[in-house]
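Reviewers of the previous submission asked for a worked example of the structure-prediction workflow described in the proposal, so we include one complete record here. The input consisted solely of the amino acid sequence. No template or homolog information was supplied to the procedure at any stage.
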Amino acid sequence: MTERRRAGEEEVRAWAELVGAARRTVTDGLVVGTSGNVSVRVGETVLVTPSGVPYDRLTPDDVTGVDLTGRQVLGTFVPTSELPMHLAVYRTTGARAVVHTHAVHATAVSTLVDELPLIHYMAAALGGPVRVARYATYGTDELAENMLRALDGRTGCLLQNHGTVTHGTTLDQAYDRTAQLEWMCRLWLTASSLPALSPSLLTPEQLAEVGERLRDYGQRG
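From that input alone, the workflow returned the following structure tokens.
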């Protein structure tokens, strides 16, 4: 049996933020029940929501963590079944947080197209046109591999007939990208629903221009 250690101060703080974000996915309507999952990387440890545990039941003592190989080093709860996806992101990017949801509009779009049409310039905030990862059974290495292909050069993607994955340098950033992605999917579905009309779409050149402007967006310092 693998020996588990106690969480350090930074991990305790990160766990509290993670639980808060997980609960937000429910209140914001991005998941139902215990679907979806959230993780945060602290050093070489990945804190992750446990499998099948309602988020409102999680306490500070329920911290669940693994190393980058998936070996559990914190807690007694079994980590989320989507652990391969989370670890794949951390091994291949500089991400410090990952959010996975079953958001309704985004999941609907994932069943219709191979890439979210350029309905809004905020696609640039995710690195460009949002791709749809090919379907694979949840919790498998195949799904993680499909996700990585869709995430190449991006910070978010759709999972076919499944949901969304976004990552960021902070949990707030990853969560905001999830919310933006769901909003864009809802926008495209709404605009596409009118009979005999098709929404205008941005060109790749227009999106690239926005991408340049976003580099200086926000407050400095």
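Residues 110 and 160 are 5 Å apart (CA to CA). We consider this example representative of the routine output the project will generate in years two and three.
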